[in-house]
Specification:
Number of strands of chain A: 12
Structural class of chain A: alpha/beta
Oligomer: homodimer
Low-confidence stretches of chain A: 1-17, 331-336
Mean pLDDT of chain A: 89
């Protein structure tokens, strides 16, 4: 059917989202991305890591003020170039189930004013274009898969260790979305109180992984900001122990081809080698995969995209939303 | 293309694997299933739970003797009715990666004589038909999804708690296969040695979930077979604690729509209610999913297919293998 010449069907069989302008030149579509964090929001326009045409940082204030500024940024951009869609990668927890009535909402966050905010719905109505939506961690994992440390891989786990611990996992090239997005930071691990009497900092679970190994947990345990702890401080051996216990648990469930670990805490230069060695020790030869036994430096790796992963993932969410819109029987404006 | 009448193409567009015999009657294809356990092997022929036409139990002896008897069972059956393919659901660990040179092998099992046995390859060569292959736990999960407690659900976790603890997870209707199949029994959980000084029974990890909560762990801790422990024995409260810690960890990673838990230990009548309550307590309100908060009896459930799940899953593996064979450009005899 694609060979019937210059009919309408010929146009439809062209690559997804590509159009022609009035002079007959091909127009590449542009997407908008929003990475919404607890303290700041990054908005950008582009098509990928080598083509981010505009970006802006907005402090995270009230939902009204903040979402207003996001909408304003994209409206102004559209005065020059049209956007096909926008993707939102946000702090959670969120409702990312497209079949749920509260899809696109931030749900039970303790962040003042933001609980139950319909961030995707408001932006979709204000801009009148398809809006993609997921957690910041899922979006960053998508971007690492498309352009970064997980290129060409079918299954991987992406973890971020910073003010919290978040995780995403791709299985058979699909991100895990069950009843909701994963909350990997809250898994429970062994905690020997004789070695580490710290009770943990998680308000829900005390000594879950996040409660033992996030930045705030390190600060509460050692009485100083994690960034100021020297390289030879015993904090890092304990941190490697907890992270390795977390990785091993994820390994036994997902058995990914690779772990990508980002976040501020992982900037500590000795932490990757310590975690890798401890993972091998904890497995104790049970898993005979060569990549774990002999190439662990390729198995547990830092991200490639650094702090741009979130907003690049948001741009991928925008692409997905435009794709769904194009393939859906109903027309513009729907949020899925 | 399916409406062109009685041409060859018309036959090819009929439902997969259905054929016509010489009198023009439709023949439903038949599949063989092998569930290989550590002590016995079940072979069956059929199309589903309401149509198991023949089955046999074979003790698990040496690979030569045992595989010989499996091949003999299917050869004899084929003297009357042809089989389209055979599926093998086996104890592990196995290599279930179709792209691996050792696909279809049992790998590092401590079972005498069975390590590195090419069970799928031998059966495929002897019977000359497509052979499907996966772990017993993955196969049982497939069967529960097709015919049992996970019908109509996109994501679930299937656990079996008996002589070992094994687990499978389906995400977006696809079983998790990463570098290899999951080994969920070996996740690490908190273990308070002041409450339970038992060191754990896992030869690799001591007090992993399997080392604390499998049948042999119960027997070693309490000095008697788990089946003989009375309903009000403190063993069951501790067992519920460990299983709930395991479920909560799986929940935070996979966030499934349902947990299905089978195996001999789960026959203890009070165990399901104890586990359900403890899961809710451990989550402590962090996950606001109504099914967890209000319908936990529908969230953590026993299997529907009982001890037939493994062999029924093997029949599904056979169907998949026949499907792949039919759709592959090469012809009969390949093992994927």
């Amino acid at each position: 059917m694609g060979n019937r010449g210059h009919s309408g069907q010929g146009l439809e069989s062209a690559p997804c989202h590509t159009g022609w302008n009035l002079e007959g030149k091909q127009i590449m579509p542009l997407w908008g991305g929003v990475e919404a964090g607890g303290t700041k929001i990054v908005c950008a326009v582009g098509t990928g890591p080598d083509d981010l045409r505009a970006d802006v940082r907005i402090p995270t204030k009230t939902p009204d003020e903040t979402i207003g500024r996001i909408v304003q940024f994209f409206r102004r951009y559209q005065e020059n170039e049209p956007l096909a869609s926008v993707g939102i990668a946000t702090f959670g927890p969120v409702d990312s189930d497209p079949n749920s009535p509260s899809f696109g909402h931030v749900t039970t966050t303790p962040k003042p004013g933001w609980a139950h905010t319909d961030i995707a719905g408001i932006i979709q109505r204000e801009l009148g274009m398809p809006v993609g939506f997921d957690t910041d961690v899922n979006a960053a994992a998508l971007a690492e898969h498309q352009w970064g440390a997980a290129r060409g891989i079918d299954s991987f786990v992406y973890l971020t260790v910073g003010t919290g611990i978040g995780g995403a996992a791709m299985v058979a090239r699909t991100l895990i979305h069950g009843l909701s997005h994963p909350e990997m930071g809250h898994i429970r691990i062994p905690h020997d109180r004789a070695v580490d009497p710290f009770a943990g900092s998680c308000p829900f679970h005390g000594d879950c992984l996040e409660g033992l190994a996030s930045g705030p947990a390190l600060e509460a345990r050692w009485g100083q900001d994690a960034n100021t702890l020297p390289v030879d401080h015993p904090a890092w051996l304990l941190e490697a122990e907890y992270l390795a216990l977390g990785l091993v648990n994820l390994l036994y469930v997902v058995f990914p081809q690779r772990f990508i670990i980002g976040g501020g805490i992982m900037q500590q230069p000795n932490l990757f080698p310590l975690v890798r060695r401890r993972v091998q020790e904890l497995l104790n030869g049970y898993l005979q995969a060569p990549v774990i036994l002999n190439q662990i430096d390729d198995f547990i790796v830092p991200p490639d995209l650094g702090n741009r992963a979130g907003v690049l993932g948001a741009i991928l969410l925008a692409q997905q939303a435009a794709s769904r819109e194009k393939n859906s029987p109903s027309s513009t404006g729907s949020r899925t």
